[in-house]
Model the fold of this input.
Amino acid sequence: MPDQSELAFNQRDLGHGASETVMHPAVLVALALTCVLVLWLPRKHATIPLFLIAFLVPRGQQIYLVGQHWYVLSIVILIGSVRLARAKFQIAGGMNSIDKAFILWALYRVVAIVLTHGLQSSGSEEAKFWIMAFGGYFLLRHLIQDEEDIARAAKSFAVVAVVLGACMLNERLSGVNIFGHLGGAPMFPDIRNGKVRAQATFGHSILAGCFGATLVPLFFWLWKSGKARALAGAGLAGSTIMVLMSNSSTPALSWAAGVGGLFLWPIRRSMRAVRWGIVLTLVALAMVMKAPVWFIVAHVNVIGGSGGYDRAFLIDTFMRHWKDWWLIGTNQNGNWGYDMWDLSNQFVAEGEMGGLVTFVCFIAIISRSFGRLGSLRRLVDRKQEWLLWSLGAVMLAHIFAYFGVAYWDNTQIWWFAFLAMISAATASLGNTPADSKVAHTKVAPVLEPLDAWLLDRAHAGPSAVGTLESVS
Done:
Protein backbone atom coordinates (compact mmCIF):
# COMPACT_ATOMS: atom_id res chain seq x y z
CA MET A 1 0.00 0.00 0.00
CA PRO A 2 1.45 3.40 -0.92
CA ASP A 3 2.07 5.90 1.87
CA GLN A 4 -0.37 8.79 1.55
CA SER A 5 2.40 11.22 2.48
CA GLU A 6 3.85 10.46 -0.95
CA LEU A 7 0.63 11.25 -2.76
CA ALA A 8 -0.17 14.46 -4.60
CA PHE A 9 -3.95 14.94 -4.73
CA ASN A 10 -4.50 11.34 -3.62
CA GLN A 11 -2.40 9.24 -6.01
CA ARG A 12 1.23 8.42 -6.69
CA ASP A 13 2.72 10.31 -9.64
CA LEU A 14 4.35 8.46 -12.49
CA GLY A 15 8.08 8.73 -11.92
CA HIS A 16 7.60 9.73 -8.26
CA GLY A 17 10.07 7.14 -7.07
CA ALA A 18 12.70 8.05 -9.66
CA SER A 19 16.06 9.17 -8.32
CA GLU A 20 16.97 11.17 -11.41
CA THR A 21 15.48 13.64 -13.85
CA VAL A 22 12.91 12.39 -16.38
CA MET A 23 12.84 15.15 -18.98
CA HIS A 24 12.80 14.75 -22.76
CA PRO A 25 14.85 17.46 -24.57
CA ALA A 26 11.77 18.56 -26.53
CA VAL A 27 9.83 18.94 -23.29
CA LEU A 28 12.66 20.93 -21.75
CA VAL A 29 12.58 23.39 -24.67
CA ALA A 30 8.78 23.60 -24.45
CA LEU A 31 9.03 24.20 -20.70
CA ALA A 32 11.50 27.05 -21.10
CA LEU A 33 9.42 28.67 -23.83
CA THR A 34 6.21 28.28 -21.82
CA CYS A 35 7.73 29.88 -18.75
CA VAL A 36 8.79 32.91 -20.81
CA LEU A 37 5.35 33.19 -22.45
CA VAL A 38 3.37 32.79 -19.23
CA LEU A 39 5.53 35.47 -17.63
CA TRP A 40 5.54 38.04 -20.45
CA LEU A 41 2.60 37.50 -22.79
CA PRO A 42 -0.39 39.84 -22.41
CA ARG A 43 -2.65 38.48 -19.69
CA LYS A 44 -5.42 37.45 -22.08
CA HIS A 45 -3.08 35.18 -24.06
CA ALA A 46 -1.10 33.63 -21.20
CA THR A 47 -3.54 30.77 -20.66
CA ILE A 48 -2.84 29.35 -24.12
CA PRO A 49 0.74 28.09 -23.51
CA LEU A 50 -0.21 27.12 -19.95
CA PHE A 51 -3.01 24.79 -21.08
CA LEU A 52 -1.02 23.37 -23.98
CA ILE A 53 1.89 22.26 -21.81
CA ALA A 54 -0.38 21.17 -18.96
CA PHE A 55 -2.27 18.65 -21.09
CA LEU A 56 0.09 17.75 -23.93
CA VAL A 57 3.09 16.83 -21.76
CA PRO A 58 3.01 13.61 -19.69
CA ARG A 59 2.53 14.20 -15.98
CA GLY A 60 5.65 12.19 -15.13
CA GLN A 61 8.04 14.60 -16.85
CA GLN A 62 10.03 16.10 -13.99
CA ILE A 63 13.34 17.52 -12.84
CA TYR A 64 14.91 15.81 -9.84
CA LEU A 65 16.64 18.54 -7.84
CA VAL A 66 17.91 18.52 -4.25
CA GLY A 67 16.03 15.31 -3.53
CA GLN A 68 12.72 16.71 -4.81
CA HIS A 69 10.63 16.00 -7.90
CA TRP A 70 9.73 19.20 -9.75
CA TYR A 71 7.08 18.40 -12.33
CA VAL A 72 6.62 20.47 -15.47
CA LEU A 73 3.26 21.82 -14.36
CA SER A 74 4.57 22.77 -10.92
CA ILE A 75 7.46 24.68 -12.46
CA VAL A 76 5.17 26.60 -14.81
CA ILE A 77 2.81 27.49 -11.96
CA LEU A 78 5.71 28.61 -9.79
CA ILE A 79 6.90 30.91 -12.58
CA GLY A 80 3.33 32.07 -13.15
CA SER A 81 3.07 33.00 -9.48
CA VAL A 82 5.73 35.65 -10.14
CA ARG A 83 3.37 37.19 -12.67
CA LEU A 84 0.51 36.95 -10.18
CA ALA A 85 2.55 38.73 -7.51
CA ARG A 86 3.66 41.36 -10.03
CA ALA A 87 -0.02 42.02 -10.80
CA LYS A 88 -0.69 42.38 -7.05
CA PHE A 89 -2.99 39.34 -7.07
CA GLN A 90 -5.62 41.09 -9.19
CA ILE A 91 -8.56 38.74 -9.75
CA ALA A 92 -11.97 39.20 -11.38
CA GLY A 93 -14.55 40.57 -8.95
CA GLY A 94 -12.21 40.42 -5.97
CA MET A 95 -12.28 37.70 -3.33
CA ASN A 96 -15.54 35.75 -3.27
CA SER A 97 -17.04 32.86 -1.29
CA ILE A 98 -15.63 30.26 -3.70
CA ASP A 99 -12.13 31.65 -3.09
CA LYS A 100 -12.63 31.65 0.68
CA ALA A 101 -13.84 28.05 0.69
CA PHE A 102 -10.92 27.07 -1.56
CA ILE A 103 -8.34 28.71 0.72
CA LEU A 104 -9.80 27.05 3.82
CA TRP A 105 -9.94 23.72 1.97
CA ALA A 106 -6.27 23.89 0.93
CA LEU A 107 -5.01 25.22 4.27
CA TYR A 108 -6.77 22.64 6.39
CA ARG A 109 -5.79 19.84 4.07
CA VAL A 110 -2.12 20.74 4.40
CA VAL A 111 -2.38 20.98 8.19
CA ALA A 112 -4.27 17.68 8.38
CA ILE A 113 -1.65 15.81 6.34
CA VAL A 114 1.16 17.20 8.47
CA LEU A 115 -0.68 16.14 11.65
CA THR A 116 -1.44 12.64 10.39
CA HIS A 117 1.97 11.98 8.82
CA GLY A 118 4.38 14.34 10.51
CA LEU A 119 6.19 17.33 9.04
CA GLN A 120 9.38 15.43 8.32
CA SER A 121 7.70 12.81 6.13
CA SER A 122 5.16 15.00 4.34
CA GLY A 123 6.37 18.59 4.48
CA SER A 124 7.90 18.78 1.01
CA GLU A 125 4.92 17.04 -0.61
CA GLU A 126 2.45 19.39 1.02
CA ALA A 127 4.56 22.40 0.08
CA LYS A 128 4.29 21.29 -3.56
CA PHE A 129 0.58 20.64 -3.07
CA TRP A 130 0.21 24.23 -1.84
CA ILE A 131 2.11 25.55 -4.86
CA MET A 132 -0.14 23.51 -7.14
CA ALA A 133 -3.40 24.37 -5.41
CA PHE A 134 -2.99 27.95 -4.23
CA GLY A 135 -0.62 29.04 -7.00
CA GLY A 136 -2.48 27.27 -9.81
CA TYR A 137 -5.94 28.35 -8.72
CA PHE A 138 -5.19 32.03 -8.16
CA LEU A 139 -2.98 32.25 -11.24
CA LEU A 140 -5.99 31.13 -13.28
CA ARG A 141 -8.27 33.48 -11.34
CA HIS A 142 -5.96 36.27 -12.49
CA LEU A 143 -5.68 35.12 -16.11
CA ILE A 144 -9.40 34.42 -16.67
CA GLN A 145 -11.39 37.57 -15.92
CA ASP A 146 -14.27 37.93 -18.39
CA GLU A 147 -16.37 36.17 -21.03
CA GLU A 148 -13.76 36.68 -23.74
CA ASP A 149 -11.13 35.03 -21.55
CA ILE A 150 -13.50 32.09 -21.03
CA ALA A 151 -13.99 31.79 -24.78
CA ARG A 152 -10.24 31.95 -25.37
CA ALA A 153 -9.64 29.25 -22.77
CA ALA A 154 -12.38 27.11 -24.35
CA LYS A 155 -10.67 27.43 -27.73
CA SER A 156 -7.38 26.30 -26.18
CA PHE A 157 -9.10 23.31 -24.61
CA ALA A 158 -10.68 22.49 -27.98
CA VAL A 159 -7.22 22.30 -29.58
CA VAL A 160 -6.05 20.10 -26.71
CA ALA A 161 -9.10 17.83 -27.04
CA VAL A 162 -8.55 17.39 -30.78
CA VAL A 163 -4.89 16.42 -30.28
CA LEU A 164 -5.58 14.12 -27.35
CA GLY A 165 -8.61 12.55 -29.03
CA ALA A 166 -6.53 11.69 -32.09
CA CYS A 167 -3.70 10.32 -29.94
CA MET A 168 -6.07 8.22 -27.83
CA LEU A 169 -7.70 6.83 -30.97
CA ASN A 170 -4.25 5.87 -32.23
CA GLU A 171 -3.51 4.36 -28.82
CA ARG A 172 -6.61 2.20 -29.05
CA LEU A 173 -5.81 1.03 -32.60
CA SER A 174 -2.06 0.50 -32.20
CA GLY A 175 -1.84 -0.49 -28.55
CA VAL A 176 0.95 2.06 -28.04
CA ASN A 177 0.73 5.37 -26.19
CA ILE A 178 2.61 7.87 -28.35
CA PHE A 179 3.38 9.99 -25.26
CA GLY A 180 5.25 7.06 -23.78
CA HIS A 181 8.13 7.88 -26.13
CA LEU A 182 8.66 11.11 -24.18
CA GLY A 183 8.80 9.38 -20.81
CA GLY A 184 6.58 9.94 -17.79
CA ALA A 185 3.68 8.04 -19.37
CA PRO A 186 3.25 4.29 -19.91
CA MET A 187 4.22 3.08 -23.36
CA PHE A 188 1.56 0.37 -23.34
CA PRO A 189 -1.92 1.13 -21.99
CA ASP A 190 -4.05 -1.04 -19.73
CA ILE A 191 -6.39 -3.57 -21.31
CA ARG A 192 -9.79 -4.55 -19.86
CA ASN A 193 -12.01 -7.22 -21.36
CA GLY A 194 -9.76 -7.30 -24.39
CA LYS A 195 -10.14 -3.55 -25.05
CA VAL A 196 -7.44 -0.92 -24.71
CA ARG A 197 -8.06 1.78 -22.09
CA ALA A 198 -6.28 4.75 -23.64
CA GLN A 199 -4.90 7.43 -21.31
CA ALA A 200 -2.57 9.70 -23.34
CA THR A 201 -0.77 12.16 -21.01
CA PHE A 202 -3.04 11.49 -18.03
CA GLY A 203 -2.35 9.38 -14.97
CA HIS A 204 -5.19 6.98 -15.71
CA SER A 205 -7.65 6.23 -18.48
CA ILE A 206 -10.60 7.27 -16.29
CA LEU A 207 -9.05 10.70 -15.73
CA ALA A 208 -8.40 11.09 -19.46
CA GLY A 209 -12.01 10.23 -20.23
CA CYS A 210 -13.39 12.51 -17.50
CA PHE A 211 -11.34 15.40 -18.83
CA GLY A 212 -12.97 14.99 -22.22
CA ALA A 213 -16.44 14.40 -20.79
CA THR A 214 -16.50 17.51 -18.60
CA LEU A 215 -15.39 19.73 -21.49
CA VAL A 216 -18.40 18.89 -23.68
CA PRO A 217 -20.85 21.51 -22.29
CA LEU A 218 -18.18 24.20 -22.59
CA PHE A 219 -17.60 23.36 -26.25
CA PHE A 220 -21.34 23.32 -26.87
CA TRP A 221 -21.57 26.86 -25.45
CA LEU A 222 -18.64 27.91 -27.66
CA TRP A 223 -20.45 26.51 -30.70
CA LYS A 224 -23.80 28.01 -29.71
CA SER A 225 -22.25 31.44 -29.12
CA GLY A 226 -20.90 31.46 -32.68
CA LYS A 227 -17.44 32.50 -31.49
CA ALA A 228 -15.59 29.60 -33.15
CA ARG A 229 -18.06 27.02 -34.46
CA ALA A 230 -15.57 24.94 -36.45
CA LEU A 231 -13.15 24.71 -33.55
CA ALA A 232 -15.96 24.04 -31.09
CA GLY A 233 -17.26 21.22 -33.29
CA ALA A 234 -13.79 19.72 -33.52
CA GLY A 235 -13.48 20.00 -29.73
CA LEU A 236 -16.81 18.21 -29.26
CA ALA A 237 -15.64 15.39 -31.50
CA GLY A 238 -12.22 15.16 -29.85
CA SER A 239 -13.58 15.16 -26.30
CA THR A 240 -16.20 12.52 -27.15
CA ILE A 241 -13.52 10.33 -28.70
CA MET A 242 -11.53 10.68 -25.48
CA VAL A 243 -14.53 9.37 -23.53
CA LEU A 244 -15.00 6.41 -25.88
CA MET A 245 -11.30 5.51 -26.04
CA SER A 246 -10.95 5.50 -22.25
CA ASN A 247 -13.30 2.49 -22.12
CA SER A 248 -14.58 3.46 -18.67
CA SER A 249 -18.04 3.91 -17.16
CA THR A 250 -17.25 7.03 -15.12
CA PRO A 251 -16.39 9.22 -18.15
CA ALA A 252 -19.45 7.91 -20.01
CA LEU A 253 -21.73 8.83 -17.10
CA SER A 254 -20.04 12.22 -16.76
CA TRP A 255 -20.55 12.87 -20.49
CA ALA A 256 -24.22 11.91 -20.17
CA ALA A 257 -24.64 14.16 -17.13
CA GLY A 258 -23.12 17.17 -18.90
CA VAL A 259 -25.23 16.67 -22.02
CA GLY A 260 -28.30 15.96 -19.90
CA GLY A 261 -27.74 19.20 -18.03
CA LEU A 262 -27.74 21.08 -21.33
CA PHE A 263 -31.01 19.41 -22.36
CA LEU A 264 -32.67 20.66 -19.15
CA TRP A 265 -32.48 24.20 -20.59
CA PRO A 266 -36.20 24.28 -21.63
CA ILE A 267 -37.29 23.64 -18.01
CA ARG A 268 -34.69 25.92 -16.41
CA ARG A 269 -37.45 27.88 -14.65
CA SER A 270 -38.59 24.73 -12.85
CA MET A 271 -35.30 23.50 -11.44
CA ARG A 272 -36.51 23.80 -7.85
CA ALA A 273 -39.08 21.10 -8.60
CA VAL A 274 -36.39 18.97 -10.29
CA ARG A 275 -34.10 19.26 -7.27
CA TRP A 276 -36.87 18.33 -4.86
CA GLY A 277 -37.81 15.44 -7.12
CA ILE A 278 -34.26 14.10 -6.90
CA VAL A 279 -34.23 14.44 -3.11
CA LEU A 280 -37.61 12.71 -2.70
CA THR A 281 -36.54 9.94 -5.07
CA LEU A 282 -33.42 9.27 -3.02
CA VAL A 283 -35.46 9.28 0.20
CA ALA A 284 -37.92 6.81 -1.30
CA LEU A 285 -35.08 4.55 -2.48
CA ALA A 286 -33.47 4.69 0.97
CA MET A 287 -36.76 3.52 2.48
CA VAL A 288 -37.25 0.56 0.14
CA MET A 289 -33.68 -0.57 -0.49
CA LYS A 290 -32.18 -3.23 1.74
CA ALA A 291 -28.72 -1.68 1.37
CA PRO A 292 -27.80 2.01 1.92
CA VAL A 293 -28.87 4.29 -0.91
CA TRP A 294 -25.29 4.80 -2.15
CA PHE A 295 -25.30 1.17 -3.31
CA ILE A 296 -27.17 2.47 -6.34
CA VAL A 297 -23.65 3.05 -7.65
CA ALA A 298 -23.08 -0.71 -7.56
CA HIS A 299 -25.69 -1.17 -10.30
CA VAL A 300 -24.03 1.25 -12.69
CA ASN A 301 -22.18 -0.62 -15.42
CA VAL A 302 -22.06 1.31 -18.68
CA ILE A 303 -18.89 -0.47 -19.81
CA GLY A 304 -18.53 -4.20 -19.17
CA GLY A 305 -16.39 -5.00 -16.13
CA SER A 306 -17.08 -1.67 -14.41
CA GLY A 307 -16.13 -1.39 -10.73
CA GLY A 308 -19.46 0.00 -9.54
CA TYR A 309 -19.69 -2.33 -6.56
CA ASP A 310 -16.15 -1.48 -5.48
CA ARG A 311 -17.02 2.23 -5.47
CA ALA A 312 -20.24 1.63 -3.53
CA PHE A 313 -18.31 -0.46 -1.01
CA LEU A 314 -15.70 2.33 -0.74
CA ILE A 315 -18.43 4.86 0.16
CA ASP A 316 -20.00 2.41 2.62
CA THR A 317 -16.68 1.71 4.33
CA PHE A 318 -15.93 5.43 4.46
CA MET A 319 -19.26 6.13 6.17
CA ARG A 320 -18.85 3.29 8.66
CA HIS A 321 -15.38 4.55 9.68
CA TRP A 322 -16.34 8.20 10.10
CA LYS A 323 -14.88 8.27 13.62
CA ASP A 324 -11.45 7.53 12.12
CA TRP A 325 -11.38 10.48 9.72
CA TRP A 326 -13.82 13.23 10.75
CA LEU A 327 -11.32 15.42 12.64
CA ILE A 328 -8.13 15.53 10.56
CA GLY A 329 -8.49 12.70 8.06
CA THR A 330 -6.63 9.42 8.35
CA ASN A 331 -3.64 7.52 7.05
CA GLN A 332 -5.11 4.17 8.11
CA ASN A 333 -7.79 3.75 5.45
CA GLY A 334 -5.67 1.05 3.79
CA ASN A 335 -6.40 -1.13 6.81
CA TRP A 336 -10.17 -0.85 6.44
CA GLY A 337 -10.35 -3.58 3.83
CA TYR A 338 -9.23 -4.77 0.43
CA ASP A 339 -8.25 -1.89 -1.89
CA MET A 340 -9.45 0.76 0.57
CA TRP A 341 -6.25 2.72 -0.07
CA ASP A 342 -7.57 3.45 -3.59
CA LEU A 343 -9.45 6.75 -3.26
CA SER A 344 -11.52 6.43 -6.43
CA ASN A 345 -14.09 8.93 -5.21
CA GLN A 346 -13.33 12.64 -4.77
CA PHE A 347 -15.73 13.09 -1.86
CA VAL A 348 -14.25 10.14 0.00
CA ALA A 349 -10.76 11.43 -0.76
CA GLU A 350 -11.58 14.83 0.73
CA GLY A 351 -12.72 13.27 4.00
CA GLU A 352 -9.85 10.86 4.29
CA MET A 353 -7.21 13.44 3.36
CA GLY A 354 -8.45 16.30 5.53
CA GLY A 355 -11.43 15.32 7.65
CA LEU A 356 -14.86 16.88 7.87
CA VAL A 357 -13.59 20.43 7.33
CA THR A 358 -12.06 19.73 3.91
CA PHE A 359 -15.06 17.57 3.00
CA VAL A 360 -17.51 20.37 3.81
CA CYS A 361 -15.30 23.02 2.18
CA PHE A 362 -15.23 20.99 -1.01
CA ILE A 363 -19.03 20.71 -0.93
CA ALA A 364 -19.19 24.45 -0.22
CA ILE A 365 -17.09 25.20 -3.31
CA ILE A 366 -19.62 23.29 -5.41
CA SER A 367 -22.60 24.82 -3.60
CA ARG A 368 -21.31 28.39 -3.89
CA SER A 369 -20.53 27.84 -7.57
CA PHE A 370 -24.10 26.78 -8.26
CA GLY A 371 -25.33 29.62 -6.06
CA ARG A 372 -23.46 32.30 -8.00
CA LEU A 373 -24.55 30.90 -11.36
CA GLY A 374 -28.19 30.50 -10.34
CA SER A 375 -28.60 33.87 -8.64
CA LEU A 376 -27.35 35.78 -11.67
CA ARG A 377 -28.79 33.59 -14.41
CA ARG A 378 -32.31 35.02 -14.09
CA LEU A 379 -31.10 38.61 -14.40
CA VAL A 380 -29.11 38.58 -17.63
CA ASP A 381 -30.09 38.32 -21.27
CA ARG A 382 -30.61 34.98 -23.01
CA LYS A 383 -27.11 34.83 -24.51
CA GLN A 384 -25.42 35.45 -21.17
CA GLU A 385 -27.82 33.07 -19.45
CA TRP A 386 -26.72 30.32 -21.81
CA LEU A 387 -23.10 30.74 -20.69
CA LEU A 388 -24.07 30.46 -17.03
CA TRP A 389 -26.29 27.44 -17.76
CA SER A 390 -23.50 25.72 -19.69
CA LEU A 391 -21.08 26.24 -16.80
CA GLY A 392 -23.68 24.67 -14.52
CA ALA A 393 -23.81 21.67 -16.85
CA VAL A 394 -20.01 21.40 -16.64
CA MET A 395 -20.26 21.36 -12.84
CA LEU A 396 -22.88 18.60 -13.03
CA ALA A 397 -20.51 16.56 -15.21
CA HIS A 398 -17.71 17.07 -12.67
CA ILE A 399 -19.95 15.88 -9.83
CA PHE A 400 -20.77 12.66 -11.67
CA ALA A 401 -17.06 12.18 -12.39
CA TYR A 402 -16.23 12.64 -8.70
CA PHE A 403 -18.27 9.61 -7.75
CA GLY A 404 -15.91 7.41 -9.77
CA VAL A 405 -12.51 9.07 -9.51
CA ALA A 406 -10.46 11.60 -7.55
CA TYR A 407 -8.60 14.17 -9.64
CA TRP A 408 -4.86 14.00 -9.06
CA ASP A 409 -3.06 14.61 -12.36
CA ASN A 410 -3.37 17.36 -15.01
CA THR A 411 -7.14 17.33 -14.46
CA GLN A 412 -6.50 19.46 -11.36
CA ILE A 413 -5.70 22.41 -13.60
CA TRP A 414 -8.91 21.94 -15.56
CA TRP A 415 -10.87 21.98 -12.27
CA PHE A 416 -9.10 25.18 -11.14
CA ALA A 417 -9.64 26.80 -14.55
CA PHE A 418 -13.33 25.90 -14.43
CA LEU A 419 -13.79 27.47 -10.99
CA ALA A 420 -12.01 30.57 -12.29
CA MET A 421 -14.46 30.64 -15.23
CA ILE A 422 -17.41 30.65 -12.83
CA SER A 423 -16.00 33.57 -10.84
CA ALA A 424 -15.09 35.45 -14.02
CA ALA A 425 -18.50 34.89 -15.64
CA THR A 426 -20.50 35.94 -12.60
CA ALA A 427 -18.24 38.93 -11.90
CA SER A 428 -18.22 40.28 -15.46
CA LEU A 429 -21.88 39.59 -16.23
CA GLY A 430 -22.80 41.09 -12.88
CA ASN A 431 -21.67 44.47 -14.17
CA THR A 432 -24.87 44.90 -16.21
CA PRO A 433 -27.89 47.16 -15.65
CA ALA A 434 -29.70 44.08 -14.35
CA ASP A 435 -27.29 44.12 -11.44
CA SER A 436 -29.59 46.53 -9.63
CA LYS A 437 -32.28 43.83 -9.52
CA VAL A 438 -30.13 41.33 -7.71
CA ALA A 439 -31.16 42.66 -4.35
CA HIS A 440 -34.53 40.97 -4.87
CA THR A 441 -33.12 37.61 -5.92
CA LYS A 442 -33.69 34.65 -3.65
CA VAL A 443 -30.64 32.52 -3.15
CA ALA A 444 -31.15 28.97 -1.98
CA PRO A 445 -27.74 27.33 -1.70
CA VAL A 446 -27.68 23.64 -0.86
CA LEU A 447 -25.52 24.06 2.25
CA GLU A 448 -26.45 27.54 3.52
CA PRO A 449 -26.01 26.69 7.24
CA LEU A 450 -22.62 25.06 6.63
CA ASP A 451 -21.52 27.93 4.41
CA ALA A 452 -22.47 30.41 7.10
CA TRP A 453 -20.55 28.44 9.72
CA LEU A 454 -17.44 27.87 7.64
CA LEU A 455 -17.17 31.03 5.59
CA ASP A 456 -18.41 33.61 8.13
CA ARG A 457 -21.03 35.00 5.83
CA ALA A 458 -22.20 37.54 8.36
CA HIS A 459 -23.25 39.93 5.63
CA ALA A 460 -25.73 37.36 4.24
CA GLY A 461 -27.79 37.23 7.41
CA PRO A 462 -29.88 34.23 8.47
CA SER A 463 -32.29 34.33 5.56
CA ALA A 464 -31.85 32.87 2.14
CA VAL A 465 -32.41 36.27 0.52
CA GLY A 466 -29.32 38.19 -0.52
CA THR A 467 -27.68 40.42 -3.06
CA LEU A 468 -25.05 39.36 -5.53
CA GLU A 469 -22.54 40.34 -2.83
CA SER A 470 -23.99 37.65 -0.58
CA VAL A 471 -22.83 35.01 -3.02
CA SER A 472 -19.48 36.68 -3.68
